[in-house]
Amino acid sequence: xxxxxxxxxxxxxxxxxxxxxxxxxxxxxxxxxxxxxxxxxxxxxxxxxxxxxxxxxxxxxxxxxxxxxxxxxxxxxxxxxxxxxxxxxxxxxxxxxxxxxxxxxxxxxxxxxxxxx
Length: 117
Known about the structure:
Elements: H1 4-16, H2 34-57, H3 61-73, H4 82-99, H5 107-113
């Protein structure tokens, strides 16, 4: 089993990244409005903090799935295009990878596409 300290450190690495910026490695144009980009960064960072808290308290997969659902809903107030929505999903998938959560339980697909696979 992976130690909690390692999981927390890996989660905090995600928090330290600047998110939603143009990236040539993965064709992504980024969000040009700096204020919106900063708000979206804060939303992902809030989710990281919530994941850290759950890791420290010994949460279940379902607890993390609920955090994903709660976190994604926060993005609904923004009019994000498909590329930006995909970036949001990728950040949540990165969080899932860190904690070894194999499935969002269809939550990410439902948020992204409007239905579960």
